[in-house]
Amino acid sequence: MKRTYFGTDGVRGPYGGPVVNEAFASRLGEAAGRWAGGRGRVLIGRDTRASGEALMLAVAAGLAAAGLEPVSLGVVPTPAVARAVRASNAVLGVVITASHNPAADNGIKFFAGTGIKLTDEDEVLIESLIPNGARAPLASLHVENGVSDYVAIACGLLPAGSLAGWRIVLDTANGATCGTSPVVLRALGAEVIAIGNEPDGRNINSGVGSEHPEKLAEKVRASGARLGVAHDGDGDRCILCDETGAVLDGDEVLTLLALHALSEGRLATSTLVITVQSNLGVDAAINAAGGQVARTSVGDRYVIERMLADGATLGGESSGHIICADTAPTGDGLVAALKVMEVMLATGRPLSELRKGLRKFPQATGNLKLREKRELAECAALVSEIGALEAELGAQGRVLVRFSGTEPKLRLLVEGPTGAAVASGIERLSRAAAVDLQVI
Question: Of 51, 99, 181, 210, which is the active-site residue?
Answer without folding.
Answer: 99
